[in-house]
Amino acid sequence: MKKVLLSLLPLCLSLPVLAADALPQAVASQYQALGGQENPTWQKADNPGFIYTACLNQQTDAQQRIVVMCGDGDENHNSGVDTGFFDIWYLENDRVTAEKIIEGGGRYGSSGSASAAKIGSRWGVVLETGYALQGFVQTFYSFYVPKERDVVANLQDVEKLAHLPVYSSNAGYCDPSVVEGCKLDELVSTVAFADNETEPYPDMIIHATGMLEGKKIDKSFTQAFDRKTGEYPIPKEIDIGY
Prior knowledge:
This protein is mainly β. It has one domain (3-238). It contains 1 helix and 14 strands. The model is unreliable at 7-21 (pLDDT under 50).
């Protein structure tokens, strides 16, 4: 079985911030441009306190474009419990066909970053979030695609396919000389999808390597989409939560 490996490393993605006039008008009209900034930024009337940048703006074919606006908290919205936002926009010929607003999983008002990836027959959005807290570090990826077109609806919804940790470490906390019986985690998971451009839900292949509960791991998992839950199931042994 062929597979498409996504270049998803457990590091922050360095995506370019685009010029204000590069945003499609249908998206730009939903935001208010802020002046006096080195990089273009925006605000939204219905979400004050968050500053948005265009963290993804990609033409995926002759008609389709994907835009993701990443919203980070201002000085009054950047405490340890605050999270940022992602606004996902799918457009065809500059007309919005699908959209979704998602609260990020980071801390201190941060959203994260975004990239585009082909997932079976559809182009998807991969959101990266993460945190570092008291010796624990985690990076997560969430996968989103537009739902299959409904001829009745004017606007498609965007569905979440999966959410999983791709990097988990307790190394900053787990010092055996200080924490008795602590078991080290230093786990990296890479994600690929089966190469099938006619299948809307191709198999997800996860390869986990590193240390898990003090033991070496080098293991692959092939996960079929679960239509009952509407997501890919993530193996419990690598779905770490601190």
